[in-house]
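call fold(seq) -> tokens
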Amino acid sequence: MKPPATHADIAALCRFVRTAQIAYNQANKETFLRETRRLAARMARDLELESGAFDIRVNPAGIGSSGDVTLHAEHLYVCLDAEIDFGRGRTFCFRGCRSRRDYTGLGNQWALWDDLAHRYAQVIGAMRAAENGNSAVICPWPN
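ret:
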């Protein structure tokens, strides 16, 4: 695996997620999963998670899906996929959890992929808050 993603890599991945057809396109799906795994490694580093204290899992899923990459630590669960769009762009979710065996965790929090490109430090801060059982609004949704 290549080293964790740089800020330029993250910006390029966010553009790719925004514009590419990932489901039903095997080459794009492989690119998405490979680069998103690198992003998860970067997030783990920036969240100061110790080696061995988290898992990074890749789920390629079926042809009609982007697949997903999960970063799962003792108190944080991040699911990076390119499936959900609430009308403002593709999103991913993260939440606090009680252990690495907790797959439902606390309430989901959502961020736009574009937030990673433009407000990466704020997203990491919100993940830290979720890890401590708090929530922080990344992207206020219109009412």
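The longest helix spans residues 26-46.
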